[in-house]
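Recall that a protein's primary structure is simply its ordered list of amino acids. Everything else, from secondary elements to tertiary packing, is in principle encoded there. The following example makes that idea concrete.
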Amino acid sequence: MRIGNLGGRAVLVREDGAIDIATSSNGAFGPDPQQIYESWPEFRRWAPRAKGTPTPVDPGRLGPPVPRPRQIFAIGFNYLDHSDEAGTEVPRHPTVFTKFSSSLTGPYATVALSSGMLPDWEVELVVVIGTGGRDIPVRSAWEHVAGVTVGQDLSDRRLQMRKPAPPQYSLGKSWPGFGPIGPYVVTPDELADPDDLAIECLLGEERVQASRTSTLLFPVPELIARLSRTLTLFGGDLIFTGTPSGVGAFRTPPRWLRPGDVLTSTVEGVGAIVTTFVEDSDAGPGERRVAGEASAAGAGRE
């Protein structure tokens, strides 16, 4: 099944339109898209019986399908070609950081850029936890997944790598709008092989990233197992699983996102998200932000 956030309400998305979950379930599940992941086993049992009159899906009304996760994990250098382009050693353990939830936005978002940034793109497969827990075995890890979605781990390399402090991965990747996800959460049973999906990113008409998730150094089940050895995973948590090569920071010369650019990020069987960039001064109410600190020289890593 495909689960979306249509105008702030949780919906099941089918070929003929969207079914409102709260209405169809007679209130057993509320309209909040986040709630269903917090009661995932019950929702998963009910969803096949959902009935209702489908309504057309207006893409402009789609919000982030998981709007308020308790935890967001992001994995660095999880594709060999990305590690190679960055000139780093192949990691022996997952490189884990976080994005803050205030960075999340929907699948057709307009994101404001300030003149103090060095903005970069990173297309990623994003995993949504369904049933959480501790010490989850690799062999059963997919059973704990509600679904997957498409994400962009947008990064301000200047803030991320400013000197003299250590790298600020989480801050540099958490400006408002720097976590677009969507268009829907797709359950693993919808995919022919959830461990082998084509993934790509277009900047305008140019393909800047292309790979397959089967080349992840730490596949989804291993990421879940390793994370849950240390901490408790909760329903609705997100895992940004890493990006393949082709980011702007490691091009010669480096290439940064600019106002007017459009990114199209796609994962096979899941869908595409489109992110449009504007000047900070062009952003609407509540979208404006001050420029990132510009004291650092050069690009960042990851």
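The chain has a mean pLDDT of 92. The radius of gyration is 19 Å.
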